[in-house]
Design brief:
single chain; alpha/beta; 4-stranded antiparallel sheet; 10 helices; 10 strands; binds adenosine-5'-triphosphate; binds magnesium ion
Length: about 260
């Protein structure tokens, strides 16, 4: 059964139809790509599924239950994690604080535990710290654990955002252009990190990217979006050889 399903979703911004009749199926653990020119509606699709906007039409189902109309935090709690096209970090918090904060939604010791330091609280907190450590190592930011994110190199900030999203133990992770602004070295590092996270946690991934090599190497299935509509869907090989995709998008995109 699919983990995430979108059925015939459309969205209008005033008179502009930004997304038209969009459907999607992601199986547990699948890496699914979404490509297309600037302004095609890719980020809007993320914002619709994650509850930032409510679709004008259509249904969105996570684990076979509709999530349309839920708040973003409720959708996150059901297992959907995300990062943003423009980094959204708390600039003056440390890396460890970011990852720990995200884990608080997972703690169960409650108010009494918080006030009185019950054994359950101590156990959960130390487990939480260990898990944060594992994530910081996995995303290559453990050496910055006690630094505020403002002072980190850009590539590392993006990895903090991913570690924070993974701290909530999502079933599926949405990544909006994770390599934007990265140099070739950081790009290769990011590809390796996503592969490792995917292997370790078996998390599904929904990926928006302009760097074609990255998309083609990581994804099992790719959709191409142009003017809010899917013009092609298939394996990386099918997409690369599809004349409609080449004409509308790949022809103009740098293949790197
Ligand atoms: N909040 C909004 N209000 C009105 N129009 C919007 C809003 N958000 C996006 N749009 C419009 O919807 C269309 C799709 O934008 P979107 O950001 O989803 O594109 P994208 O595929 O993510 O592009 P990029 O590759 O540049 O990130 C664009 O025409 C954009 O101007
Ligand atoms: Mg976008």
């Amino acid at each position: 059964m699919a983990l995430l399903e979108v059925h015939h979703m459309s969205h209008d911004f005033g008179g502009l139809r930004a997304v038209n009749n969009y459907s999607l199926n992601i199986e547990p653990g699948e890496i699914h790509g979404l490509i297309g020119p600037n302004g095609a509606g890719k980020t809007t699709i993320f914002n619709l599924i994650t509850g930032i906007y409510r679709p004008t039409e259509g249904d969105i189902r996570l684990d076979n239950a509709s999530i349309v109309g839920l708040q973003p935090y409720q959708i996150a709690a059901r297992g959907l994690g995300r990062t943003f096209q423009n980094l959204q970090l708390w600039r003056h918090m440390t890396v460890l604080e970011h990852v720990m904060m995200a884990r608080y939604s997972k703690l169960t010791y409650g108010l009494v535990g918080a006030f009185f330091g019950t054994p359950k609280r101590k156990r959960e907190e130390s487990e939480s710290r260990e898990k944060a450590q594992v994530l910081m190592e996995l995303f290559g930011v453990d050496r910055f654990a006690n630094q505020i994110v403002l002072n980190l190199p850009y590539g590392a900030q993006r990895r903090v955002e991913m570690a924070r999203a993974m701290a909530m133990e999502p079933k599926i992770l949405f990544l909006d252009e994770p390599t934007a602004g990265m140099n070739p070295e950081e790009l290769i590092q990011m590809m390796e990190i996503i592969r490792r996270a995917h292997r370790k946690f078996g998390v599904g991934i929904f990926l928006i990217e302009h760097r074609m090599r990255f998309v083609m190497e990581l994804c099992q299935e790719i959709q191409t979006l142009v003017f809010g509509e899917v013009i092609a869907e298939g394996t990386p090989e099918e997409i690369q050889n599809n004349p409609k995709v080449i004409e509308a998008y790949l022809g103009s995109e740098m293949v790197e």
